[in-house]
């Protein structure tokens, strides 16, 4: 099948009273924001995109936006948040874009003594800490770094890379561990990386937005998304389609919810978060 599709551009600005929302510009968010950027919901929000999910959390924390697609660990760290139900960025097994890398002379995770964590990440950084502490039974030394594989592996035994950089690095002499796959191996559950969240005082405005409908419209236009993102990400459209349809899960069902709840419990057990607050769901 040909990959030629018409590429859309935004044709209208947001309404004057439109709420501000923020999302990462990584490929894995594309179906969730396509409707707001190019589809039927263009005027409903003022959309701010940033490459790093961590900075979207910061924007929500300092009230620069009313809602944001936020790393799920931040729900337990930022006060007075509500969660948009049913919509997420997650994976049921192999996610491909959240990976722990090692030079090939290290053939076992148990040999790792130092790990460089991608500064763009918060949930994934917590996940890799849980994997080492809870599942492997030891604690390496942690550092943070910009997402540059060669530089990170010069200073550490292993490197955590997330998002588009986690799919486009050179595989030569690199051992790759997929974190969602490791989580599945040890828990039997899928993993949730991010969800839409809003400040409590803004819940009424955010409640009017149909994030699930936006997701569904985006998934209906995966062909357009693949064509649009291919030159930006440096991956063929066919690979982008398979990634979005097979590796990423955008629906928070019972299994994904169970994975989320377990992640919070283990994060608390390992001292990554102070408490486990129950999810406050934004009513429809």
Please, how many domains?
2
How large is the count of helical segments?
11
What is the averaged pLDDT score?
92
What class, by secondary structure content? alpha/beta
Stretches where pLDDT falls below 50 for ≥5 residues? 1-6
Q: Look up the CATH topology of the largest domain.
A: D-Maltodextrin-Binding Protein, domain 2
CATH class wording of the largest domain: Alpha Beta
CATH superfamily of the largest domain: Periplasmic binding protein-like II
Distance between the termini: 39 Å
| Share of helix, binned | 25-40%
Q: What is the global morphology?
A: globular
Helix/strand order: EHEHEEEEEHEHEHEHEHHHHEH
* CATH architecture assignment name of the largest domain: 3-Layer(aba) Sandwich
Give a short account of the largest sheet. 7 strands, mixed
Q: Topology, pairings included?
A:
Elements lengths: L19 E5 L5 H8 L8 E5 L2 H9 L5 E5 L9 E3 L3 E5 L6 E6 L10 E5 L4 H14 L4 E5 L3 H7 L2 E5 L2 H4 L5 E5 H9 L3 E9 L3 H5 L3 H10 L1 H12 L3 H11 L1 E3 L2 H16 L15
Parallel strand pairs: 1-2, 1-3, 7-8, 7-9
Antiparallel strand pairs: 3-11, 4-11, 5-11, 5-12, 6-9, 6-10
Helix pairs in contact: 1-8, 3-6, 9-10
Give a description of the structure.
This protein has 284 residues and is α/β, with parallel strands linked by helices. The protein has 2 domains: 136 residues, Periplasmic binding protein-like II (D-Maltodextrin-Binding Protein, domain 2), CATH 3.40.190.10; 90 residues, D-Maltodextrin-Binding Protein, domain 2, CATH 3.40.190.10. It is 37% helix and 21% strand. The protein contains 11 helices and 12 strands. The strands form 2 sheets. Strands 1, 2, 3, 4, 5, 11 and 12 form a 7-stranded mixed beta sheet that branches. The protein is globular. The termini are far apart.
């Amino acid at each position: 099948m040909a990959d030629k599709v018409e590429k859309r551009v935004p044709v209208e600005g947001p309404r004057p009273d439109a709420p501000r929302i923020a999302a990462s510009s990584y490929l894995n968010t594309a179906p969730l924001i396509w409707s707001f950027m190019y589809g039927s919901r263009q005027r409903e929000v003022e959309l701010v995109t940033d490459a790093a999910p961590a900075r979207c959390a910061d924007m929500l924390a300092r009230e620069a936006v009313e809602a944001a697609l936020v790393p799920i660990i931040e729900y337990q760290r930022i006060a007075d948040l509500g969660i948009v139900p049913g919509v997420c960025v997650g994976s049921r097994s192999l996610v491909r874009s959240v990976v722990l890398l090692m030079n090939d002379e290290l053939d076992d995770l148990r040999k790792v003594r130092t790990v460089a964590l991608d500064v763009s990440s918060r949930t994934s950084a917590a996940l890799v800490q849980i994997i080492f502490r809870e599942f492997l039974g030891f604690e390496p030394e942690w550092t943070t770094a910009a997402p540059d594989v060669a530089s990170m592996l010069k200073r550490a035994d292993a490197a955590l890379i997330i998002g588009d950089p986690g799919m486009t690095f050179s595989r030569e002499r690199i051992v790759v561990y997929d974190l969602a796959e490791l989580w599945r191996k040890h828990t039997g559950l899928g993993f949730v990386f991010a969800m839409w969240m809003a400040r409590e005082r803004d819940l009424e405005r955010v409640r009017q937005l149909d994030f699930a409908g936006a997701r569904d419209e985006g998934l209906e236009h995966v062909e357009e998304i693949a064509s649009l993102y291919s030159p930006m990400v440096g991956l063929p459209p066919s690979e982008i389609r398979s990634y979005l349809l097979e590796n990423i899960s955008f629906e928070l069902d019972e299994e994904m919810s169970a994975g989320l709840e377990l992640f919070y419990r283990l994060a608390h057990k390992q001292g990554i978060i102070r408490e486990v607050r129950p999810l406050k769901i934004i009513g429809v």
